[in-house]
Amino acid sequence: MNENLLSYGDYSSGHIWLPININESVDLENVDQQQENKDKEILVRQRDLYFRYESLNTESTTCVNLPAIANLKGLLAFRMGKYEQSLKHFESVSLENEENVNALQNLAHVYAQLNMQSKAEEMSSIVRVLLGRSETVNVSNKLVNHRVACSLAEHAVAYAYDVGLTHDDVKLERLEEVIALFDRAINLSSSTLSTTQRREWFYFMLVVFVRIDKLLMRSEDKSKRLNMFNRALNIAKDLERSDRPLLKSTSSVLLGIMLERQTDFKSTPISVHDCGYTGLHSLQCYSKAIEAAEKDVQVLNNLSKVFQMNGKHELAIAAANMSIEIDDSDENISPFHTRAKVYTTIYMRDLARSQSETCVMPDRELLEKAKEDLEKVIQVSPCLRTYVDIGQTCYYIGADAITEAMIVDEGSINSALVYFSKALDCEMGKSFPELQLLRGKCMKIRGEDDNALECFKQSALVERKGSSNTIIFNYMLETYMNWFCQSDEEKRKVIVDEVDEWMQFFLNNFNKHTLKINLRRLAHERTQQLLQLCRGTIQSCKFTLPKMCFEIFDCED
């Protein structure tokens, strides 16, 4: 442990030592010894950190605890090796609040990393004084407790934005740790915490409680859910009294979402009656939230995002429209992006329904609206995510809605590939699996199967280990089946070798259960082609695919 680190019981100031995935380095000794696997682990980690950092840029406009976000961005920049950038974030916090012990301790570590030992020691000395650990300066326990509490609250925010949480049980555990940290912070500073600061923490806790409740709804163990639900409603009740539009408005939305979920319980949770919400309809909460926004653009933008993330499409569009009516300048791009996401989400939902033979045709006008909004965003703030979003929109405009096997608008397909090319030039563009998959789909529909297969391979190579995104597997195996059935004997031998190599890759790197489900579906849809390919692999003594085919009929699956 760094000698500049100051511990306070089981608490340590700063973010560098938090036991979260952001701070975990890639353990190269336990990674497969092949260099490409080590490189992939490093790449995936860098990608996670980069996307989390970029997502926080949009959070900063509506977040109630900006120092916590700035400290977290500094931590992410530090872990990406961008030390100067990290330094700027930590310095911005310390300039605004000279008593922010996290920022000061973080600065000490960055200075030490940059071999500026005198400055590192200076920062650590200031932290010692602020936390009452100096032999020359006396500080009251109340003041020390308050500073530690504020530090713990910032730690809670960092836990909430951790990376690499791929499973529900892991996400749930991390979010429960967030609540525990906030509880500890509130208890520690109960006599010194202002109402304003307490409600800022309550606001963040309510957001986390809503996320926890959603995870518990999917969990087999629901024993904790009632207690969490009751706590969430009590916090929402307190936030109703806030005079800040952001807190009041967003908490009303989250209250409405929680009230919608009360029907999942065998009987009405007691907090519904205790808080005076008996008979209150969620739509009343949503209406109250929009009223509380008071024509505040930032609050409306936040409302739109909350509605969008919780599947309230019409309300998300309404809030975005209100924001745009108030300010349609280039400074207010967020509602355009949110509205485009909603349009695309609705289209994709209806597309999935149409492909499952429920006779619901998706409205292509939604894609045109999404494209129009995204073009405005691109002009003002071009970035990797936006290029991918507009490229995806162009792809679906250009492909037929039923099978995606025929081009209906060649210009849109070409535009999609142009946008994807620009996305590749962005930082981390080449490491984004979704981008490579979409490029492959564009080339496949153009009849460029060789190019499409290369893109699918690249997508598979940069996917996270254990991924359930096995649609890549489908596209690659379909391509190999088509080639095998159309090729001569010599070409078939090459195909069989590739198939065996890639089947082993998928088994070693992707979720096996999901692979079996997808292979079972392919076996039903394209039985003869799959049988031919399996015969070819058996004749060449390549048994990976045939073995997988036998396993899909295992009764345990």
Question: What would you say about this model in short?
Answer:
The protein is mostly helical and 557 residues long. Helices cover 69% and strands 1% of the residues.
Task: Report what the structure shows.
With 557 residues, the chain is mainly α. It is 69% helix and 1% strand. Strands 1-2 form a two-stranded antiparallel sheet. Residues 1-7 have low confidence and may be disordered.
Strand order of the largest sheet: 1-2
Order of H and E elements: EEHHHHHHHHHHHHHHHHHHHHHHHHH
Number of helices: 25
Which percent band covers the strand fraction? under 5%
Q: Give the radius of gyration.
A: 26 Å
N- to C-terminal separation?
47 Å
Residues in helices, as a percent range? 55-70%
Mean pLDDT: 90
Shape: globular
Major β-sheet, in short?
2 strands, antiparallel
Beta-strand segment tally: 2
Low-confidence stretches: 1-7
* Sheet/helix structural class: mainly alpha
What topology emerges from the helices and strands here?
Elements: E1 7-8, E2 11-12, H1 35-59, H2 66-79, H3 83-96, H4 101-113, H5 117-130, H6 141-160, H7 168-188, H8 195-218, H9 225-239, H10 245-260, H11 270-274, H12 282-292, H13 297-309, H14 313-326, H15 334-355, H16 365-380, H17 384-398, H18 410-425, H19 433-445, H20 449-461, H21 471-486, H22 489-509, H23 512-525, H24 527-539, H25 544-551
Antiparallel strand pairs: 1-2
Helix pairs in contact: 1-2, 2-3, 2-4, 2-6, 3-4, 4-5, 6-7, 7-8, 8-9, 8-10, 9-10, 10-12, 10-13, 13-14, 13-15, 14-15, 15-16, 16-17, 17-18, 17-19, 18-19, 19-20, 20-21, 21-22, 21-23, 21-24, 23-24
